[in-house]
Amino acid sequence: MTQPPPPEESRGQLVQDYEHIRHEYDELAVASETLIRQLLESSEIVPHHVAKRSKEPDSLSAKISLHPQYESLDDIPDLCGLRVILHFPSEVRIVTSLLAQEFDVIESEVHGAEVPELFDYASVHLTCRINEDRRTHREWSRFGDLHLEIQIRTVLQHAWAVISHGLGYKPNEQVPADTQRILFRAAALLETADELFDTFKEGG
Asked: What three-state secondary structure class fits 94?
């Protein structure tokens, strides 16, 4: 049975609670971005882009409406979000492993791998919190058990995410067969290009 959306009053209270502490998620985003950039530099990986954000209250309200199981802010994984865009698929694997050593990973999802026949974008999503060792340091202890979501993907995977989102199609909706063929071909070409670039990087 489909769970009804939370009452307007309950949703409004969650958003209000978030607005009172949003600055904590802003600070967590800044600290986490700095840490990620340091990890990339120490591993001699030059990212295409690293972005951070705390969730906008309007976006949070809309998300709660779609997820009635969210009863507290602790249930919402992406109030703090970071995106790491890299040049090669092999770097995605390396960075995912690096982050797993520096953060406590609560959940790891590889989008685009579960149902390969769907033209969904590919991306690794890690729901994390600062690991226990780091929380012993004064500058990190204030973040406690705040959650953050880190998305890791290649430039081409990001391009597909942006373009497919702009087209307005959802992975599980009915799409005309001719359009499906075009989208499948485009997704396959981008995936092939990613693999080829990785091969070139490794010398052949």
From this structure: helix
Continuous segment of H or E residues that includes residue 147: none
Query: Which CATH number does the domain housing residue 170 bear?
Result: 3.30.460.10
Residue 94 lies in a domain: yes
Number of domains in the chain: 1
Tracing tokens 């802003």 back to the chain, one arrives at 26
Q: Which domain holds residue 59?
A: 8-201
pLDDT in tens, 145-196: 899 999 999 999 898 888 776 666 555 556 677 877 777 788 788 888 888 9
Please tell me the distance from the alpha carbon of residue 70 to that of residue 91, in angstroms, as a whole number.
34
Is the residue at 27 inside a domain?
A: yes
Contact 160, 122 (CB under 8 A): yes
Q: Are 197 and 88 in contact (CB under 8 A)?
A: yes
Q: Is 84 domain-assigned? A: yes
As a whole number of Å, the end-to-end CA separation of the chain is: 53
Q: What is the DSSP letter of 146?
A: -
Asked if residue 2 is part of any domain, the answer here is no
Is 50 strand, coil or helix? Answer: strand
Please report where in the chains the tokens 């990973």 appear, as a residue.
105
Burial state string for 43-74 with b = 16 or more CB within 10 A and e = fewer than 16: eebebeebebbbbeeeebbebbeeeeebeebe
pLDDT in tens, 16-27: 999 999 999 999
